[in-house]
Amino acid sequence: MAPLDRYMSRETQKKLRNGYLHAVMYMFSKLCYKTCRNRFHISDYANSNSFIACLWHGNFLMMPYLYRKVRSNPNMVFVTSAHDDGDIIEKYFAKFGLEGIRGSRGIDKGGAKALIKAIRALREGKDLAITPDGPKGPYKSIANGILLMAMKSGVGICGCRVKPSRFWQMKTWDKFCIPKPFSRIDYYLGEPLFLTPDMDIEEAKDKLAQYMKKIDEL
Hints:
Blueprint: H1 10-35, E1 37-42, H2 44-48, E2 52-54, H3 63-70, E3 76-81, H4 84-94, E4 99-103, H5 111-123, E5 127-130, H6 144-153, E6 157-164, E7 167-169, E8 177-179, E9 184-189, H7 201-216
Parallel strand pairs: 1-9, 2-5, 2-6, 3-4, 3-5
Antiparallel strand pairs: 6-9, 7-8
Helix pairs in contact: 1-4, 5-6
């Protein structure tokens, strides 16, 4: 039994979560940003070119503050899942002026449409953010979507990381990271990785995995 089950039904919990969690996340992230010492490490490429922001699902909470440091006027779309968690993330990112593309890993569940929309946005000069291990993992795995987006658009992938000095880590599949107020947060947006259209998909996946491993070590 979940802790809240004794106080309210699962349906009520779901309604509260879907209706208000994004607002709670926004208020808490704002508190963290205002009370923490924020340090930014941003590649020159991202400052002057559109890019694909690659970030792990458990590390997205403070990412809008990193992007806001790169672009004073937001010009980003982000790919999120079609289920309830995706709805919460979409509402959260919308508070920062970012536009969502709803999709899924499954072609029959909206994945193909999301891929087409994402590639079109990149060709229009927009930035794009995606969590390659979302929506359900495995942890730090890489789905094909981000690879195809990069290979077909020619836009560079810039790995992202938010590294708080003190944080809580939730017991979820993505090990969701919540910075503690009054800590130090380092924000990283790395140099680009380019994947060519003629590259084998497994080779591209291996290159991105190795690249993200280096980002994780920053």
